[in-house]
Description:
Elements: E1 8-9, H1 15-28, E2 32-43, E3 46-51, E4 76-80, E5 85-89, E6 99-100
Antiparallel strand pairs: 1-6, 2-3, 2-4, 4-5
Amino acid sequence: RAEEMGGYLACITTAEENAALLKLLRRSGEVEAYFGLFNTGRNETGYTYGWVSGEELTYTDWDPAQPDNWNNCELYGGFWIEGGHWNDYAQDAIRTYIVEWNSENDVK
């Protein structure tokens, strides 16, 4: 759906960007929202994740004990407002998502 609108799911690369998006989400009244983080597999230290934009994953804000890929179906990252940190979710667990555009000209 984000791509249909001319954008992509938001990719959070700094603590400041994370705080700004979390603030907007809280203001909207929503409690959870997807962003562009997805499970790319597993290695010897745990699960690996990447951004849909292809940007390098250099910043994270996982809730304690997350990501856990509960029931082997939580493959996507999102905000969990209760703690203000990130959680992993199943594909159809949330209805809200945060879209990012490269410029105002990209918005359809």
